[in-house]
What we know:
CATH class of the largest domain: Alpha Beta
Oligomer: single chain
Number of strands: 28
Strand order of the largest sheet: 5-4-8-1-9-10-2-11
Radius of gyration: 25 Å
Amino acid sequence: MKRQNILSLFCITAFAHVAVADKPNIILIYTDDHGHADLGIHGVVKDIRTPHLDALARSGVVATQGYSTAPQCVPSRGGVMTGRFQGRFDLDNNGSALDGFNKETTIAMRLQNAGYATAQFGKWHLGPTEAITKHGFKHVFSQNAQRPFSANITLEGQDRPMSDLPPGEYHLDACSKAAVSIIERYKDQPFFLYLAYRAPHTPLDAPGRYLDRFPGEMPERRRLALGMISAMDDGVGLIVSTLKKHNLTEKTLIFFIGDNGAPLKIHKIDSPRDSDAGGWDGSLNTPLNGEKGMLSEGGISTPFLIAWPGTIPGGRVYEHPVTALDFAATASAAASIGNRGGLDGVNLLPHLTGENKAPPHAALYWRWNAQSAVREGNWKLLRGGDREYLYDLATDREEKHNLTAKHPEIATRLRAKLKTWADGLNPPGMALGPMAATWNDYFDHYLEGKTIANAPGKASKSKADTGVQGWLARDGTLNVKDGILLLKSDKGNQAPFITRSQLKLKGPLVASLTIKTDNAGRGGIAWRMDGDNDFLPVNRASFKVSANSDWQTLKIELPPSGKIIHLRLHLPGGSTQIQKFELNDAEGKAVLSLSDRAMK
Length: 600
């Protein structure tokens, strides 16, 4: 090779190395069911202790009007990972298929292509954890509980084949330490860390050393939540101190965002930690109205911090609305990724540095199941089924005063904007179906001021809701007539399901279902594995149902090989007669049966 070519190649290589080295490190810390109140710097509640997060906030910006894109785990995570509103690729709720998401370009892919070392820690909830590397993450340490988890690095950051790794430490501590090990490993080149703590989401599992920090009288679920948040806070302190040790503080952009508001279950019942894994998680949304599962402020306004010392001035409160979608756009701009087409967020850097004093967004939009909302300036229009509410958030952040009658022209204008936006989604529309009974209860309680006697999801004393052979109905009623199980929608043709928990079934299984139904459509069997906190989208087998006056028998394969602890049988709306529902193991032996003979 000629000397001048060698010199040219050397210069190009050296320039590329310098260009990559000049890129800032980027860290996204994502919390789980973390209420707006539970950040010390907010000054809302007195029992919270988050000194490291408060210090991070003082080094950067507190976004007091920071929003998630959905009031539920899966869609909000799909949005933050892609920087695109998840309704554009049919990821509207926890039960959505992941086909659309799997075709999207994540921020991890963008940064990896720009020369970043990428790593994921903690909760994923967007498909099989062993496949996280397909979405742009080189390193994976997906521990979110005290059970085996997918990992291709050790706690010390050493490479290993992707496979299950047994838990060695409390999952929140382990994720923090693994993240620090990657900082140590890549301190001389740019890295992107996605640290998704499963906290304070149930099951509440803070160990004693964290609980001891919160003595005194309080609900035990509150103490457990405070303990889990304190563990996250310690992790943030460990990460920040490691950055400082390697002189990386001013070379690192950090976002801290919650995935949605806290689930209060209306009544904040302080049940024992092991008896109600899906109950109140002990976190609080005060003073905001509503909770997880609602597009009111309590469901979507979360803790939201941004820090980049030396670039973003510290010690500031930013009051213009921002969204988790802005993370991908901001990270792309910080990393000098040229083509950012298709992102729905805004690069916040010029707004946070003061270069651009205008609000980042002309309007923000949401859609989740039967709910949708738009915020334009301080006006917010919220829809839930046939209900509609207009709030002036400048004077009523708690959403107590519906102004639709007083300002119908504003409601009409915002409704038109919301419809135009929603018609561009996949599928289109401001709602994806009618309001389920649970969310009607939530709207009645929070937005209408009505008293709800029983916590949503708790069994009443009616015969229909006490169930049959351990099965309970949701969004419908369950009765037995002439030895046949009858499942009927609560309202119109909304899709009901029956559910049974506390199971110990070893898969794989084959389900046999014999039914008659009024409506054609799609049904499904969803399952929760031992250790899962929720029903994951991948743990669902779908099937087609024909409207027919004759009995039809369907065979559905349930492929998981582990222990199934919770099942749901989803059926089309209207009325369905169930003659038989049986699960058989690989040898054809019935391990669970719901039949006409058993019901007589």
